[in-house]
Specification:
Layout lengths: L22 H13 L2 E5 L6 H16 L2 E6 L8 H12 L4 E6 L7 H12 L3 E7 L8 E5 L18 H4 L3 H13 L10 H10 L4 H8 L7 H10 L1 H5 L8 H9 L3 H10 L8 H8 L6 H11 L4 E2 L7 E2 L2 H12 L5 H25 L3 H10 L1 H7 L7 H11 L1 H5 L4 H14 L6 H12 L8 H14 L2 H17 L3 H14 L10 H15 L20 H17 L3 H18 L2 H17 L3 H10 L12 H9 L2 H14 L1 H4 L4
Helix pairs in contact: 1-2, 3-4, 6-8, 7-9, 11-15, 12-15, 13-14, 13-16, 16-17, 16-18, 16-19, 19-21, 21-22, 22-23, 22-24, 23-24, 24-25, 24-26, 25-26, 26-27, 27-28, 27-29, 28-29, 29-30, 29-31, 30-31, 30-32
Length: about 650
């Protein structure tokens, strides 16, 4: 492997464990080294830059016979660029050699000058660099080392993936091999596969962190490790050897210039991906202006994890974020408090923006915005944060549509209940209304009374007319679940009368009218007029979610009137919107009605498939679908079980084109 340069070079490190994954990156490094004089492997601490460089060097030298000199920058005592440069130039002069400079970020800006001078003095030299920074030289060929491939997230949390479904992930393979090294009896099973997959995702597929956690397999089961990691990431990751622990997080910050170090700390308030605009808005204040924060982000980008789905967005590795957050929290100047408040203000603005999009009819865009920023919104809804429980409730109320119309009712309830429990009396009427709706609207009517009473009293005191209207809507929903359809229609009529023209929050008039249409459909009353015919104006047609529920209600009425063809048309159109918005409550009811229509046509297997597709999302308080009784009478138990299970695996979205 060549003679090391005295006082500078070392032997190429020995590989003490198996090399997992990285086939594509290894091929790419070898290809670049064959054509480029300077190749830089960039990435955050622990991503595997050194390990990839070791394997690449051994592969290249085995086929070319090229001499290699390895320099571990961290092992250079009292680094002085001129001395190292002089020794390397004299030690490598006249040789065809590959020089590896491992950990060049520790040299700061001197790294670029060192490499540039070496390439100028030594025309037969090739250089392979590992660094958390680009050298920014014209001849530099950069390869960003990505995390190991991750296991897919389960489409249904109630049905976690089996070991075979996650074993193909390089991150899982690495974890499994290293865990077996610590505990020879460790193996991937149905009992621990979901926890291993979640651990790998929580650790971002960073090999160093995976190796550290897997090395403790004899101390912690994967599920216990996941809980510890979630509760105290820095403490759990601390104490291990290697370049992936908080020691590297500390080094990343310590070796940075003051402005970069300040940005590292402020970035720790972001729970998920961020872009330059977000960084400027949250982190750009005081001595670090918005423009300088955005510029520094571009310099730090190689040491961050890139968002593959959205170019230009990054996130902090877990260990770095945990360490930086601890430093920010103990900042004597109160920098952490200011950063947290600015982060909350941005989250509040985004939640309001999403609510506005929903109100204007751009509901798919509203859902996408809320989901894209959900990690930050969740952080802002923490009632123990600097902004407090009242501010957390404001965001939760703005996101009412995400909880009620986009399939996240349970999460919404958790946020509301936690913040309401910490909010001093009187608690805000809007939040109490939403908590009551998320209980009653999904069939748990027995637990809504205390919330309704408190919400009504507070709404009267606060003069919240819109809240009084929505509480009437909740009472109507309770009556609807209890099959008191005339009472429900009366409550919904009162809600429509009380609702101001511009309520400022919550569902629009179209949603309330759709609920009344559904109640009337169950009474056998004539079809009520549509929104515009009833004088609601053009805004009624700009609420796709409400329109989908109105179509479902009209399908119920059409079926009751003996018009199955119209019922089928209406319910299929309702499902298009409900699937686009992930309205799981709407999907469960519409699919059950469609299953009833299919059973009436003698298509019993199709009916069972539909019932299986929404079986897990159907509310516990809902009565058994009528179609279920029909298919039980017409199919053998085995055929019914098979079709039901197939529907659950296939999903409603995939089934609809066949219908």
């Amino acid at each position: 492997m060549g003679d090391p340069v005295p006082g500078v070079g070392q032997a190429v490190p020995v590989e003490l464990s198996s090399f997992v994954g990285r086939r594509r990156e290894l091929t790419r490094v070898a290809s670049l080294l064959a054509t480029e004089r300077l190749v830089t492997l960039t990435g955050p601490a622990g991503i595997g830059k050194t390990r990839l460089a070791v394997r690449a060097v051994r592969t290249v030298t085995a086929t070319t016979g090229l001499d290699t000199v390895w320099v571990d920058v961290s092992a250079l005592p009292g680094f002085r660029r001129a001395v190292v440069e002089h020794r390397l130039i004299h030690g490598l002069a006249g040789r065809d050699v590959l020089l590896v400079l491992d950990g060049c970020e520790q040299l700061g800006e001197a790294a670029g000058r060192l490499v540039e001078n070496l390439l100028g003095w030594l025309p037969r030299l090739r250089v392979l660099v590992t660094s958390q920074r680009r050298l920014a030289l014209p001849v530099e060929a950069e390869l960003a080392v990505p995390p190991l491939s991750l296991p897919p997230a389960p489409p249904d949390p109630a049905a976690p993936l089996a070991p075979a479904a996650i074993a193909g992930s390089a991150a899982v393979r690495l974890y499994e091999e290293r865990a077996r090294g610590a505990d020879p009896f460790f193996e991937l099973t149905d009992r621990n596969a979901a926890a291993v997959a979640a651990l790998c995702r929580a650790l971002d597929g960073i090999p160093g962190a995976l190796e550290l956690v897997a090395g403790r397999a004899h101390q912690y089961a994967p599920l216990q490790a996941l809980r510890r990691l979630t509760a105290e990431p820095l403490n759990f990751l601390a104490g291990g050897a290697g370049r992936s622990t908080p020691v590297d997080a500390e080094r990343s910050l310590r070796l940075s210039p003051p402005a970069e170090r300040l940005l590292w700390e402020r970035l720790s308030v972001f729970a998920g991906p961020f872009d330059a605009a977000a960084v400027a808005e949250v982190c750009g204040f005081g001595e670090l202006t918005a423009d300088s924060a955005a510029r520094l982000l571009a310099r730090l980008a190689p040491a961050l994890l890139a968002d593959d789905e959205r170019p230009g967005r990054y996130r902090l590795p877990l260990a770095v974020r945990a360490y930086a957050a601890r430093r920010l929290a103990h900042d004597p100047d109160g920098d952490g408090h200011t950063t947290a408040l600015r982060h909350h203000a941005r989250s509040r603005r985004l939640a309001g923006q999403a609510a506005g999009l929903w109100q204007r009819g751009a509901q798919t865009a509203a859902r996408e915005l809320a989901l894209r920023e959900l990690a930050e919104l969740r952080t802002a809804m923490n009632p123990l944060s600097a902004a407090g429980p009242g501010a957390a409730l404001e965001i939760a109320v703005d996101l009412w549509f995400l909880w009620s119309a986009c399939g996240r009712a349970e999460e919404g309830r958790r946020h509301l209940e936690r913040a309401l429990a910490l909010h001093p009396a009187p608690r805000p009427a809007r939040a109490l209304w939403l908590a009551a709706w998320l209980v009653a609207g999904f069939g748990e009517a027995d637990t809504r009374d205390p919330l309704l009473v408190e919400a009504w009293s507070t709404a009267v005191q606060e003069g919240e007319d819109a809240c009084l209207a929505y509480l009437a809507h909740v009472r109507g929903t309770v009556a609807l679940w209890q099959e008191r359809y005339e009472d429900a229609a009366a409550e919904y009529r009162e809600a429509l009368e009380l609702l101001p023209p511009e309520p400022g929050f919550g569902p629009g008039r179209g949603a309330l009218r759709a609920a009344r249409t559904l109640a009337l459909a169950h009474t056998g009353a004539p079809d009520p007029p549509t929104g515009e015919e009833a004088g609601d104006g053009p805004g009624a047609a700009a609420d796709p979610w409400a329109r989908a529920w109105e179509r479902y209600a009209r399908a119920v009425a059409a079926l009751g009137a003996g018009r199955p063809a119209r019922a089928r048309t209406e319910v299929l159109r309702a499902l298009e919107t409900q699937l686009a918005l992930d309205d799981r409550l709407g999907q469960s009811f519409s699919a059950a009605l469609l299953a009833e229509l299919e059973a009436a046509r003698g298509h019993y297997e199709r009916s069972a498939l539909l019932l299986g597709a929404v079986g897990r999302t159907r509310p516990a308080g809902a009565r058994a679908p009528r179609a279920l009784r029909t298919v039980r009478e017409r199919m053998t138990p085995q055929a019914l079980r098979t079709a039901y299970a197939q529907g659950a695996r296939t999903g409603l979205r995939a089934l609809l084109p066949e219908l």
